[in-house]
Amino acid sequence: MRSRTRLAALARLTADRAGSDGQAHAGSRRTPSTGRRVPAADRRVPTADRRPLPGWLRSLLVLGVGIAAALTVATPGNAQVGADAAATRMIHALPAGDLSAVPEDFAQVMNYTPATARLADGSLRVINPDGSCSVPGEGRPFDFAVACKAHDFGYDLLRYAQRRGAPLDSTARAEIDVLLDHDLRVQCVADSTPGSCDATVALFAAGVGFNSWRQVSGPPVDTSGLPRTAGLVLLALAGGGCLVTARSRLLPARPGPRRRLPRFRRPGASAG
User: Fold this and answer.
1) Residues 151 and 206 grouped into a single domain
2) 216-258 pLDDT, tens per residue?
3) Cβ pair 184, 149 in contact under 8 A
4) Which long-range contacts (CB under 8 A, 24 or more apart) does 231-240 make?
5) 139 located within any domain
6) Are residues 160 and 234 located together in one domain of the fold?
7) Which of 93, 221, 245, 272 is 20 to 30 Å from 115 by CA-CA measure?
8) Tell me: the pLDDT tens digits for 129-147?
9) Cβ atoms within 10 Å, residue 257
10) Model pLDDT, residue 217
C-alpha cells in the first residue's frame, strides 16, 4: 500500500514538471548556433543600420545646395551702356496709349507694326496685334485680349532695346507687369462675375511675377531664365536626394536571410 502511494505522488510530480517546461518552451525558440532556447522577451527585432552619410556625399550635397542658392538669388547685372532712350520714353507712355511715342525703327527691328485698342473703360493701349494671353484658354471666358496684347507689346519693347544693344533696366519690366495687373482688373469691373475674374487675375499676376523673377527681370528671351532655372532644378534634385537617403536609413531592415540570385551559366557549360 505504501509503495502505491509513492508511485502516485511521483507520477503527479512528473506531470507538473512537464507542464511547466511546455509553457516555458512555448514562449521561446532554439538558437541555430548553440541549440539553447531563448525566451521571447529576449528576442530583438532587427533594425536598420543607421550609419552616418559618407563624407563625400555630405560634401556633394552641401556644394549642390550652395551652387543652387547662388543661382537662384542672382541679381540683374549693371548695364555697361545706357538704356535705349526711345524705348524708355515708350515705356513711360504705355498708360496713355500714345502710338506716336513708338520708336521710329520699331517695325523694322521687330517685324510688325503696333496698333491701338481700348479697354472696357475706354482707356487706349498700344498693342501687338498678334499677341495673346500665354495661358491655356487665353483667359477665357474673361475678356483679357486687349490687356494681354498690350503686355506683349511692352515685352517687345524690352526685346527691341536689347537688339539695339541698349537693354533697359529691371524697373522697365516691373512697370509693364504692373500695368498688366491694372488692365486685367479694369476688365473684371465690366465682367458679370467679378469674384471669379479677380481670382483669375491673381493667378495671372502670380505667374507673370514668377516668370519675371526667373528671368531676372531682364528682356524675355530664351536664355534669360537659365541661371535661376538651373538653380531651381539643382535645389529640387538635392531635396529629393535628401528625402530618399533619409527614407532608406529610417526604414527597418527586413528579417530573415537574403535571397541569393542564381548564378548565370553559359549554355553548354558544365555544372562544376
Assistant:
1) yes
2) 778 887 666 566 666 667 667 766 666 666 665 555 555 555 5
3) no
4) 231/67, 231/68, 231/69, 231/70, 231/71, 231/72, 231/74, 232/68, 232/72, 234/64, 234/65, 234/67, 234/68, 234/71, 235/65, 235/68, 235/69, 235/72, 237/64, 238/61, 238/64, 238/65, 238/68
5) yes
6) no
7) 221
8) 999 887 766 777 888 999 9
9) 5
10) 77
| Contact call for residues 196 and 187 (beta carbons, < 8 A) | no
Amino acid at 22: G
Supply the pTM of this predicted model: 0.62
Using CB atoms within 10 Å of the CB of residue 151, give its burial: 0 to 12 exposed, 13 to 18 middle, 19+ buried.
Answer: buried
Nearest by Cα to 53 from 250, 237, 233, 236: 250
Write out the three cell numbers for 184.
486685367
Amino acid 78 reads: N
59 and 190 both lie in a single domain: no
d(CA 77, CA 185): 33
Q: Report CA-CA distances (Å) from 245 to 19, 182, 254.
A: 51, 47, 17
Indicate if 95 and 206 belong to the same structural domain: yes
Which residues are registered as beta bridge partners of 38? Answer: 29
Side chain identity, residue 182? H
The C-alpha R_g of the chain, in whole angstroms, comes to 38
* DSSP string across 185-240: HHHHHTSS-HHHHHHHHHHHHHHHHHHHHHTTTS---TTTTHHHHHHHHHHHHHHH
105 is in which domain, residue-wise? 77-217
* pLDDT, position 196: 86
Amino acid at 98: D
Same domain, 100 and 182: yes
